[in-house]
Input
Amino acid sequence: MRATFMYEAGDVRVQDAPDPVIEQPTDAVVRIVRSCICGSDLHPYHSLAASDGPAPMGHEFLGIVEEIGSDVSGLRRGDFVVSPFAFADNTCEFCREGLHTSCPKGGWYGAGGVGGAQAEAVRVPQAQGTLVKLPVGEDSALLPSLLTLSDVYGTGYHAARQARIRPGDTVTVIGDGAVGLLAVLSAKQLGAERIILMGRHKDRTDLGRDFGATDVVAERGEEGIAKVRELTGGHGTRAVLEAVGHMPAYEMAVGAVRPGGVISRVGVPQYEEAPVGFGSLFGPNITLTGGPAPVRAYIDELLPAVLDGTVEPGRVFDRTVSLEEVPDGYRAMDRREALKVLVTP
Amino acid sequence: MRATFMYEAGDVRVQDAPDPVIEQPTDAVVRIVRSCICGSDLHPYHSLAASDGPAPMGHEFLGIVEEIGSDVSGLRRGDFVVSPFAFADNTCEFCREGLHTSCPKGGWYGAGGVGGAQAEAVRVPQAQGTLVKLPVGEDSALLPSLLTLSDVYGTGYHAARQARIRPGDTVTVIGDGAVGLLAVLSAKQLGAERIILMGRHKDRTDLGRDFGATDVVAERGEEGIAKVRELTGGHGTRAVLEAVGHMPAYEMAVGAVRPGGVISRVGVPQYEEAPVGFGSLFGPNITLTGGPAPVRAYIDELLPAVLDGTVEPGRVFDRTVSLEEVPDGYRAMDRREALKVLVTP
Output
């Protein structure tokens, strides 16, 4: 089959690779119908060392079950499914608590001998716990929105959930990428009244307004913080959803959050140490939360509004490429020419 | 009057000082009946620069109202009161939310022209919002326990509250100082089932067992973490209450907390930066919370069980000194010869 590999920063190639096969009785093999490129794929695109490549890429997909291992029940060949970006058994103590990203039998696509989803097919470990059947056909107009359940919608929702957004809340969302925009949508769904979106790409922040943002702040750094404080009577918002992952975004979050409030991070941190002492988090009793989203836990909850068209998270896709064109898709996202790139076979 | 000042690290003196007077119509002047020395007083005792001294010391007290400003209602001369360690108006939006430590009109004893409580008397700003009348006389046997409402009990309770301890919970408490021991008591009150106390002073951890600790771990660092994990099936406890404030305690908290759990800090951090990235908090979806405790918010809630003797938080006091002996009290706490020192006039 054809599959995408990143050799080092900036070097993405689509090439021949062995067809995936059942390796464990808990596996399935899925033919990819739609996949996409993630904002988090841009982190290695900027930094991957040649010694760490080539790495199989892609962790979001819809597909058709082609083969199933002997221990998998509840799935059949031909089922149309969505996969969360992390696989998990969905039965352990962590999965039962909704923390599928900490499942001891779980893991990530593109690592540990599991392939990536920017490919013609992929082996899915823990298939019974991981894959969720979809009640539509592979020609449905809903595919882009359904695909967001694989990562970016569930991740934006995780940011809002971990921040315990409630009706009437005030929220700042940092980042106008797909996750930030879907954090806006999620905060709106949970009842937030004031949603300030920090971003400086007008086409994206316009979509953010459609998703529920009440204010847009294009300024960054100290100016951005001052603007958020100005909009909120001087104190900032109770919740800040941080969907970027770089230190300047963390610093803006600290500046924009109200005393007693919460910073919820879903952008993968590109730093290990950060300010958390008296002058940042401790003094004003700020809570820091977030992490890799257990999107499997949210699919059942978010699916109905996608199916009935109440929400259209798939609007984050603004470009479509074929599998062979994936390297062009990376370039377009890296240059901010595309918000999020959908990949067809 | 006589009052305590710290001149620099290790140099505490009791000396003559002007009697406090009403400066603002919202002030009261209180004659001190009991005060004490706080574990947090040991931080400047180790590090205060001579250029930052002399600093008035003490922020926990019971006392008799001697004078009240013209804008103070609800208090009379002769009232016996307890003060939270931070004063606040108790009417602003933050106070109404129970975050008195962020009150814009609030502040700290021993700073900004307000004296300390290791003294014969103290001026109390925002007296109406700050002081809480006690239904006992100044000869009550309950004074030590009532005095803990000023700081250490409310601070231990804040750690447990911010961690959202619930019935059946598993908790690790780091630190066998007064706050750590009262965090144990608080976790027990909130229904925690398993309470692992990390501390290495047997007399203190014995008191911790009396307060509700089910296990004691004397080891520190990686060994301490391994012990907590061994006691909890490998994963750590859902909540970790950190009542120390030094980086090794933070690192133990990160090691002892279960994926999806919460680290609640009430030890004043003696660091500004700390690990919060993928390898520490983010990957396992750990929440970091805590800060200076809004103890005013908890006094009404905690007072009944103190008055009826259900709890005896005053057991943390194991030495009593007179005001003139306060420097000896600092030395005893610094050398770990005393857990917490009560100060009589």
